[in-house]
Design goal:
By secondary structure, the chain is α/β, with parallel strands linked by helices. About 45% of the residues lie in helices and about 15% in strands. About 50% of the residues are buried.
Length: about 270
């Protein structure tokens, strides 16, 4: 299948500018970047896509064994980069996509020249002195609830993940995005996401890296941002004046400013 159709790839912005690839997180699609694209498109070529199983991707291409590991999603990124023949692109990954970007950059270092990690988490489960935000029991309960009643789980969890009670429309949007995802495919992506442990991969990052965190985030607490910054050599950590796990929607101006300032350092 044609990769551009399989992953619903869209390209916009300055065709002669440096390339930025925007990658969505679990339960989302490329539309979640709509407030970021205008800020980047003036000076950059912007690539958007949907992982197989999300958004308007070709659902017939979904393969459970492939997408049961983050490497499967990283292979989607590699396929898109290869199809567009990208070189030294900046990969902007939201949530789990931050770690997917780490894996993709290792697979095709000539394709990805920098990383922007938006509220990343290399491991969601507490482990000794590492504070991921959830106990193993929490994750088991979360996944059990998701698998038994995906729509109910989405309605309950999405507003908490968005973390903007003063902007309930954003929580509603995330709920609708979750609910629009095929439940069977969402279950696979959720299990892959919340059981992943990419901590050991951080030390292998060799490209300029920006880490963005929110002041409050139920999915990726600030201890996680500090951990990622400490384990990615030479990385920069910026704490945004935002709450919740989707700062590109809840605080787009601050998020866009941090990203464009970082992009300016790469020129």
């Amino acid at each position: 299948m044609d990769i551009l159709r399989r992953n619903n790839v869209a390209v916009t912005g300055d065709p002669d500018g440096p390339t930025v690839v925007l990658a969505h997180g679990f339960g989302c699609d490329q539309n979640m970047w709509r407030l970021t694209v205008p800020a980047l498109a003036r000076d950059h070529r912007v690539v958007l896509f949907d992982y197989v199983g999300s958004g308007r991707s070709a659902l017939s291409a979904f393969d459970e064994p492939r997408y049961s590991t983050l490497d499967g999603y990283a292979d989607d990124v590699v396929d898109v980069c290869d199809a567009l023949d990208l070189h030294e692109a900046v990969f902007v990954g939201h949530s789990v996509s931050a770690m997917i970007g780490v894996l993709a950059a290792r697979k095709v270092p000539e394709r990805i020249g920098a990383l922007v990690m938006v509220v990343p988490s290399p491991c969601y489960v507490d482990d000794g002195e590492y504070h991921g935000g959830f106990s193993a029991e929490d994750i088991d309960e979360l996944l059990s609830s998701l698998e038994s009643n995906y729509l109910g789980w989405s309605a309950a969890m999405a507003p908490a993940i968005m973390g903007t009670p003063d902007l309930p429309e954003l929580g509603e949007e995330l709920t609708n995005s979750f609910c629009a995802t095929d439940p069977a495919m969402a279950r696979v992506f959720a299990r892959t996401t919340f059981l992943s442990d990419s901590r050991a991969d951080l030390a292998a990052v060799r490209v300029p890296t920006l880490i963005l965190e929110s002041t409050e985030d139920v999915i990726a607490p600030r201890e996680v941002g500090a951990y990622v910054q400490a384990h990615v050599k030479g990385s920069t950590l910026v704490t945004l004046d935002s709450t919740g796990h989707c700062p590109h929607l809840s605080a787009p101006d601050a998020t866009n400013r941090a990203i464009t300032d970082f992009l300016a350092t790469l020129r």
